[in-house]
Amino acid sequence: MLDVSRLRVLVAVARTGSVTAAAKELHYSQPSVSHHLARLEAETGAKLVQRAGRGIRLTEAGRTLAERGAEILGRLDAAEAELSAHVGLDQGRVRLAAFPSALGTFVPRAASLLAERHPGLRVSLTEAEPPEAVRMLRAGYVDVAVIFRYDPGTEEDDIRTRRLLDEPSHLVTAEAAEPDLAAYADAEWIAGCDRCRLHLLEMCERAGFSPRVSFTTDDFVAVQALVAAGLGVTALPALTLRAARNPDVHTVALPGSTRYVLAATYGEPPEPPATAALIDALIESTGTEPSPLVGG
Hints:
Blueprint: H1 4-16, H2 19-26, H3 30-44, E1 49-52, E2 55-58, H4 60-87, E3 93-98, H5 100-103, H6 107-117, E4 122-127, H7 130-139, E5 144-149, E6 159-173, E7 188-191, H8 194-206, E8 212-216, H9 220-228, E9 234-237, H10 238-243, E10 250-266, H11 273-286
Parallel strand pairs: 3-4, 3-5, 7-8
Antiparallel strand pairs: 1-2, 5-10, 6-9, 6-10
């Protein structure tokens, strides 16, 4: 049998990249981390770490065990959270991952609503873009993931979603904008995350041109600053402009361009009470009508 505490140490070393960082994250001493790793090697009969300069690195066996260990620990944490939830909404915890502009707009309101209604329920928030948030959801690190899609029909078999918000994209320029992408065919463009960049390319293709992307950044504050400096134009979803609006840019909604914001869960229904309460708070915070979960 593998010791869960030692497995948690190995996963922390894999995630942080060093004994020192793992010790800091776990609030252990460095010798204690090294001792746990040595004991885990003795338990498994496998060499899990090896010296690399002044530090260590995981062997192939160590990486394999760390990957599987992360999944195991995630499931154990999820089981603990669900068990706590069944004790009652006045105890336990619920965990949420959300992309930056959601965290900068409606998610704090949802967390506040939950705290008002269930003061004993602990809420943890983690920033993560949709692909990472879904991985965290499947691994059991979070109970709900706020994600987005540009295609409402895209579903994953094991993920169930509830639509929270439909938001338009906006053209963002340094001068007064017009809602015609073709008018900016010769402009320099600024792109965002991988999904947003792909959506931008698709929009421009429909408008009859391929954009000349000169800058790429996930930071929507930096994107607007680049636009304000006259270095290019971009398209941003409405939530990013609500979260942080640069006063020196002009925006106009782009017809036919919508981003769908969803609350995603993993596992068989019904949802644990704490998870259901969080989803209700998210729905209320966005001002949308409740809709059934899709998928799964």
